[in-house]
Each structure stands twice: as C-alpha cells, then as structure tokens.
C-alpha cells in the first residue's frame, strides 16, 4: 500500500486510476475499498476461478521471472563441490 500511495503522491493523476489485483482478502476488505476511494482509484479484479482474465499478464511475468533466474544462474561461477 505504501508503494501505491507513493506513486499517487508523486504522479498526482488528474483522473481516476485503475488498480488491478487478485481476490486476496487484503484486496476485498472495506479498508482497501475506502483507501482506493479516498485517493480516486478504481478497483479491478479478475473473476473467481477464471484464469483467462489475467492470462497475458501472468504469462509475461512468468517469462520475466524465468529469464531473470536463468540469466542470473548463467552469470554465476561454476561450483566445484
């Protein structure tokens, strides 16, 4: 929440900003909803049990993580245990 608040404070958006999240309990709470409303943010979340709602983003981050780990492993010195 602090990172989101910092982004709003620094950029000072003129209109509503869309915030996408999963359906975790922290994102479905009344505290979260009031925080978003107070800062002119609009909440968006995927439908329960529908993995295709966010498939493109999930695929992108999967590839990013995989390549980051593979690249980092290639840069390490070989171990001779």
From TrEMBL:
<dbReference type="InterPro" id="IPR050900">
    <property type="entry name" value="Transposase_IS3/IS150/IS904"/>
</dbReference>
<dbReference type="GO" id="GO:0015074">
    <property type="term" value="P:DNA integration"/>
</dbReference>
<protein>
    <recommendedName>
        <fullName>Integrase catalytic domain-containing protein</fullName>
    </recommendedName>
</protein>
<dbReference type="InterPro" id="IPR012337">
    <property type="entry name" value="RNaseH-like_sf"/>
</dbReference>
<dbReference type="GO" id="GO:0003676">
    <property type="term" value="F:nucleic acid binding"/>
</dbReference>
<dbReference type="Pfam" id="PF00665">
    <property type="entry name" value="rve"/>
</dbReference>
<dbReference type="InterPro" id="IPR036397">
    <property type="entry name" value="RNaseH_sf"/>
</dbReference>
<dbReference type="InterPro" id="IPR001584">
    <property type="entry name" value="Integrase_cat-core"/>
</dbReference>
<feature type="domain" description="Integrase catalytic">
    <location>
        <begin position="1"/>
        <end position="81"/>
    </location>
</feature>
